[in-house]
Amino acid sequence: MTGSDGPAIDQSIETRVQQLEDTEEIRRLVLDYGRFLDSKNFGECAKLFARDGEFILPFETVVGPEAIHASMNGMLGSHLGAEGGVDFHVLANLLIELDGDSARSTSFWLYVSPREDGHPQLAQFGHYEDVLKREDGRWRFKSRNALRDIGFPHAGVPGAVPE
Amino acid sequence: VADTDSQQAMRGVGELSLAERVQRLDDLATIRGICLTYGVHLDNKDWEPYAELFSESGGFAAAIGTVTGREAIRTLFDTTLKNIPRAFHVFSEPVSDVSGDRAEARSMWIYIRTGEDGWPEMLQFGHYDDTFVREGDGRWLFEHRQVTRDVGSAPYER
Questions:
Q1: In this complex, which of B90, B114, B137 lies closest to A108 when CB atoms are compared?
Q2: What's this model's pTM, rounded to 2 decimal places?
């Protein structure tokens, strides 16, 4: 629906409204992830994954909300700032492709943090490649692959020692 | 002025049938999707599908050149950007309006590449002014994209 395939003229209004709602809920899911990640509310963040959801990082792959929650806790002070409100993921270019009860999405992330002199800096840049599924009537991450395109691990993370 | 326009737009929506309102939301979502797909093909230097986002007589105007038609668009990019290292175009949400088989949109773009120190570098910043047309087969396409750079300069200009 959000691609360039044109309007689905032969589809019922009910189907088309459902697709608009699905797109909006997935958009909200991706944005909620960023919000919970930056506030270091990892419990809520991990709940956005399906029960068998995979979180794929450059250094490990974690399966299931409980393990993902633990993995995020382990990133404090190394891959993420030690507390909420000091570093931020700006999310952009969110492209969603629906396919019934599953979907795919891609989006950019810009990791912004304070430089030593307090000015904001763009420290890392990358993108997410997501597979989504409808689970118990709600959209969840079936897999989320977090890829870094520019920059270095730990770069710009407040309090972290760069590799 | 913007508030007045917005209020007029909402009054217009109120007079539409349910089918027309759903069609309008579909159209806005499709145009948003075209703007994002444009960035995917641009960053991948995938000029064939990139040019397919424009109508057969579609126009493109920017510092890099001003051309008309898919073939000319393909040739312009293939020639100018061949040896430019990979970069990323980050977009703001487009503000768009649909009127029948035509639409307009405006959005901002940020050009990000790998800096000399290996960190991301914001090299350019600007905005797009677009017009779209719905073709006979129902597909929305760029009729014209005007690229304005507000800050910075391009790698091919250095």
A1: B90
A2: 0.91
